[in-house]
Amino acid sequence: MSTDGFSEQERAAMKARAEELRKEAAGGRGKKAATDELDVLSKIAEMEAADRAVAERVHAVVTANAPELAPKLWYGQPAYARKGKVVCFFRSGHTDKERYSTFGFTPEANLNDGGLWATSFAVTGLDDTSEAALAALVKKAVS
């Protein structure tokens, strides 16, 4: 573990989050929602090919199964929020310099199931089975 402070990726994520907060403070609601979705789609389009393919499918699953969630950037990566609070998010493994991407949920998600439940999943691809599982989790998260 480095004691030199934040890594280059962490500093970039913080800078991206600061820019997102500035946009939120300056934007109007309807116009902002359209701009936020364009920002998410642009960020996905910039991803490395394998991550982009997964992120595009994740975006389609989330928007189809939880239309009440608004796409937005969160720490420079795609996320989906309800009433301004992020419920779920996608993190590019390539961008994060990790061996796989992740899809995760924040405490805003309604996933509580007893005393133990998953809040993040490694994602390297989505087949029909994993896509259906993701859709069910997203639906539960917003229930």
From TrEMBL:
Residues 1-32 are annotated as: Disordered. Gene3D superfamilies: 3.90.1150.200. Residues 8-26 have a biased composition (Basic and acidic residues). Residues 52-142 form the YdhG-like domain. This is DUF1801 domain-containing protein. It comes from the Bacteria.
